[in-house]
């Protein structure tokens, strides 16, 4: 062979234009920091306690139960036992008929469900309204599809009685929200309960969004992965259940969040066939089919919960009670040292104000990083406690306006939360000594 053919390097640009500006990922960076420095990881959102026994037992049965078809491809758009029980469940939740074959699609976690939505519905020139703070993949996926994200913030309204803030105190401005809708608006992304804030949108707030969607003929991508994790007697209201919204809403769910097993990577989309047919096109030309064994196990888990629906022994009843206690434990630990928590109504996250700890990490006017980003990196390296900066959940234009907060995950073992409390108490003592 000619020597030049062996040594030649490609000089043409390789990166597709749709990847520009979305190559960095905070989760990769902070996972590495946590693995290297942390004694306690309250950063990334996964439980460190076991999944329920009935789910792991179902997985074991599916893996070694003698049915060799569990090791082969299943139906591309969802294992039949799973889509059937999901349809039964959502008929109860939405109060309408749900066809398992046309109104339900199973995905590789909620992440793939989101990807399918943006790829199926969004194209060049489309705008997608995103409520801040937001799970960071929304912005990246909208841009990758060729669309333009349009941001509208939840604005804090602190209580005047000196009490701790609640996630309910962060609200949309109705006039500001309405101003974001235009002829170019294709969809709005709703995340309730909201990650990172833990806000559970009220019926009034959802009806406002629904009214605007109907008025402007806009789709709603409703990310409801924390639907069962709601506290203090609050109620999770499903957007698709509101008048006029079934026909324009895709509802996304997650077995990882529902059954405290984020590694199983089973998600789903529920909605009208006229919308899901386009998601199926994306799914069949990308992932094609999800793991049969995990779908079978999740199907058995849902079958159990359908039998126990609304009963005290239901996992969907027990889990939020347990997590509310863990939430309250972390709230108390943070409040005791002056890192003021915003009490979440749902999810397994809470946001805390770090203003009283800013003296530990001097501001750097020459840094391009938001303050909370530098604070969180300093905290994990110097105190061994991992958390995530809230600015990661905001658009670039608004990152520095919210840089006095960090996000913690409280879906952890008692020992983990106790270790975090010990770190905070020692830190407070060092500050006052």
From TrEMBL:
Residue ranges constituting the Aminotransferase class I/classII large domain according to the UniProt record: 39-420
Any one biological process term the GO annotation gives: kynurenine metabolic process
Signal peptide positions on this chain: none
Record keywords: Aminotransferase, Lyase, Pyridoxal phosphate, Transferase
Pathway(s) it belongs to: Amino-acid degradation; L-kynurenine degradation; kynurenate from L-kynurenine: step 1/2
SUPFAM superfamilies registered for this protein in UniProt: PLP-dependent transferases
Highest taxon listed in the record's lineage: Eukaryota
Regions that span the bilayer: none
Catalytic activity: L-kynurenine + 2-oxoglutarate = kynurenate + L-glutamate + H2O; an S-substituted L-cysteine + H2O = a thiol + pyruvate + NH4(+)
Gene Ontology CC: one annotated term: mitochondrion
Cofactor list: pyridoxal 5'-phosphate
GO molecular function: cysteine-S-conjugate beta-lyase activity; kynurenine-oxoglutarate transaminase activity; pyridoxal phosphate binding
Ribonucleoprotein listed as a keyword: no
Assembly notes: Homodimer.
Annotated family: Belongs to the class-I pyridoxal-phosphate-dependent aminotransferase family.
Protein name in the entry: KAT1 transaminase
Organism lineage string: Eukaryota, Metazoa, Chordata, Craniata, Vertebrata
